[in-house]
Automatic annotation (TrEMBL):
CDD domains, sorted: HTH_XRE (cd00093)
All residue ranges annotated as the HTH cro/C1-type domain in the record: 17-71
UniProt-recorded Gene Ontology molecular function terms: DNA binding
Entry protein name: Helix-turn-helix domain-containing protein
Amino acid sequence: MTRSLHTPEYAAFVRILVEARKNCGLTQQDLAERLGKPQSYVAKVEGGERRLDVVEFAALARALDVDPSALFGRAMEAIADAQ
């Protein structure tokens, strides 16, 4: 499997993250502050320029006040649909 950030599956994963942030009513800046990161970090994740590892994903989910397991489930469904 390719590790590219530019696959339909990874794009689907990112769409779920962006959707979750917007559903929480947060801007990229708001989320970045909750994560203790610069806004550019969130922009790069959402723009598909930076790949998240599982620990970063869990931190992002918690910063959104979303259960990481539930968010991961939604992401897996979106990935399956993209295949």
